[in-house]
Design brief:
Length: about 100
Amino acid sequence: MTVNRERVQLWVDALRSGDYKQIRGLLYGFCEMERCAWGVAFSVASESGWDGGLGHSHFLDAMIEWYGLPDDNAVREVMIWNDYEQASFFEIADRLYVKYLKDPE
């Protein structure tokens, strides 16, 4: 699968925007704009016309496909960064940029 660089850039930009309050262990919090990193990805996709993962048994599989990520390791990796390493949204955005957007030198 080919990474959809435009969509990943939207996710990276949203993580860096300061519009979301970061939470851990849940996609969405109880207050408006509380998200984990995947919650931000879901919001970006929804705002960009994503169909919500129709036809997929699990919405994260649909998210992987929508962003064009290579496999489900991306799901685990981002969850680890957000929930266990407690990386900030800025740090997660930087890691996503390096992994999926930075041109190889």
